[in-house]
Structures are given as structure tokens and as C-alpha cells.
Amino acid sequence: MELTLLGTGAPRGLPRPGCPCAACATAVGDEARAATALLIDGALLLDLTPGPAFAAARAGHSLTAVRQVLLSHPHDGPAMEVPAGLPQPGRVADGRELALLDGHRVRAVAVDVPGTGYEVGGPEGERLLYLPPGAAPAGLAEGEGHGRGSGPYDMVLLDVLGRPDALARLRASGAVDAATDVLGVHLDHEVPPGPELHRRLAAAGARTVPDGTSLLVGEYHAVPDLPRRTLVLGGARSGKSAEAERRLAAFPDVLYVATGGTRDGDAEWAARVSAHRERRPASWRTTETCDLLPLLEGGVRHEDRPRGAAAPAAPDDSPLLIDCLALWLTHAMDEVGAWDDGKWAAGGERELRARVDELVAAVRGTRRPVVAVSNEVGSGVVPATASGRRFRDELGRLNALFGAECEHVLLVVAGQALALRG
Q: What 3-state class would DSSP assign to 121?
């Protein structure tokens, strides 16, 4: 089954007409994208882009053999012109199947926004799923199965950046696995084109291609290599936590490990914690702990449960997001008495180093995907107190040791993620 992407952009295209933003200004060449439209084996057209005949011609195809045109979402702009010779566009009712004479079968998939997703099966058993802009499949539950076929789709095309939770749902249901070719479409100007676009898609295990690209569904393509361990560094309000959360937004069953705890009577700290919670996907679990070793070892689930309740015995390999190492270090230094010069010299330094080494060893051996956040504090002024300098030095050492065990290390500055490794 051959798929040609006549467009890969949002419904208004990229750049948006008349938009002066930086993303639109740099969307030129291969980064300019018409509204998403898919041509399958020259016979089935999913969605219409302005000038579809010209778009097909640029891709080396003709629309003369198209026998069915299906729309996935309402068109809010001017009436779409249907080129002469093309069938009138239509929609398939949710759950209904359409059999085409050339051997393709199309099933309409319910989504959670106005519109329809389409599962397309090819004559040789290949299967792809196409979702409209801003949509996630409706009604999927973990392990419930999907569609007519068994196993994951060969290819999935969806709004990865706009709805990363849709990809997480598909992964949780088994519709997407590590071999599924995930393509980001409906690309808009919220993310700058070029390296940043491709970096964000790769972090979600997805990719994109220029308009006019033809692909064989089911043919092997290099799926982005997802790191098991990532360290995200940055200064205060740099966007490091948002970057870390974004890297796991397309994955199910994430466990968010908050190491800061609560601070009675501190309204400003409570507001910070609330803002972080509201930003996380509703499907994520949260635990407040500095006991990271059992989590990294994956022996048990640490989730909110009544005090004294038995922990599940099954190992847990769901992703961890640890926010943040600086607060973990503060807790560890509290416990070993690191702020007191006498206790520090009498064994506190040795005990802290042992705890850091245990943490680093657990990171090296973990089988869980881990994204950890930490502060980069070594570039500012020298702290005025001995305890402040001690904390700065120990955090720098922890960051260096932790980062050495990670496949990816990022430094976030002014909301921009710079790759230091990976």
C-alpha cells in the first residue's frame, strides 16, 4: 500500500496566510506545508488540500484513478473546490466499514472532536490509522483491542504535537508499538519548523516528512531511537520542567515523582505545586517521595494508595519523571547534616557521597525510561555562605555523575532546549 502525503500541515497550512510569527516566517522550502491530505494507491484520497491536482502532480501522481474521497474534519474556510473528475467528498459513519473495488477496506473510527478517523486496510493486510487535526480516538481503553486486525498498526498519522495524549492512548491500547511508523501531520506554527520540530517529534517516537513524499505502509523505516535515560538541566523558570513533561506526554502510565514535598504555610510553594499538577496529563500518576532507588529498580509501584496498603508485586516498567534532583539533594543533605561543618567533616560528606553513588548506580541499571530534571546552578554568582557553596558544588557533582549515565542530556535556556548529548 503506497501512501503519498499531498500535504502535512494544519488546515490553514504552514505558513499561515498573513501570519507574521517567527515560525511562519521560517516555514520555507521543505518546511512549507499544505493542509494534510493523503493519497493511497492513487485510488483513495483522505481530505482535500487546496489545489489537490497540482499537489499530486508535484509528487509525480495523478488523481484520475481516485474512486473515493473521504473527509476527516469539518472545513471552516471557503467552500473547497472539488477538481473535475473527482468523486464528491463524503464521510463514513463511526464504526461503519467501506469496501473499495481495488481491495482496500476503510473503517471509520470515532474521535473526541468533530470529525472522523479512518483505519485503512490494504490488499496485502497492511493497516494504517489516520486521525483528523486535534483529535484522539474516543473510547479506547488499555488492552481492549482495536479495529478489525490484530496487533498494532503499521503506520499511524496524527496530530502528535497538538495531541500527544492521543499517541499515549494508542500506545496504552496496543494500537501502537515500537515498530509502528508514527508520522506527525496537521503541523501548525506553534512549534518552529526545522530542527526544533524534528527534535520534538523524535522525543515522542515520531517523525515527519516533506509534502509530496511517498511511503510504503508496512515497509521498515528507522523509528526514532528513544533514550532510556534523559537529564534536563536549566536555571530557574527556564522551562526545564515543561520540556521534561513534553518528552513523556505521548507515553502512557507515566509516574511523576515529586521530590519537593509540601511546605506548610508556604502559599507561594503551594501555588507552584498546583501549577505543575494542572499541567500534567490526567492519566499520569503522582507520588511525593525522595526514595528513588526502589522506583529506579522497578520492583514495585509507588502510587498514591491508603497508608499500610500492600504494594503490587509485579515489576513496574512505566516511565518515570523525576522533578527534581536538586530537591532530592536538599533532602539528602538534610538527613546527613551537611549544613553543619562539624557533622559534614565527621562523616556527613562520606555518607552523602555514598547516597549519590547509590542513586547513580540505580540509574545505570534501571530498565525504566527516566526523565529527570535538575537545576544548573554553577553559572551564577558564588554563594555568600559556606553551606550555599557546599550545595552548589554537590549539585554540580550530582548532575555530572547522573548525566554521565544518560543517553540524552539537555540544557534549557529561555525555553529553548539545547542538546548536550544525544
A: strand
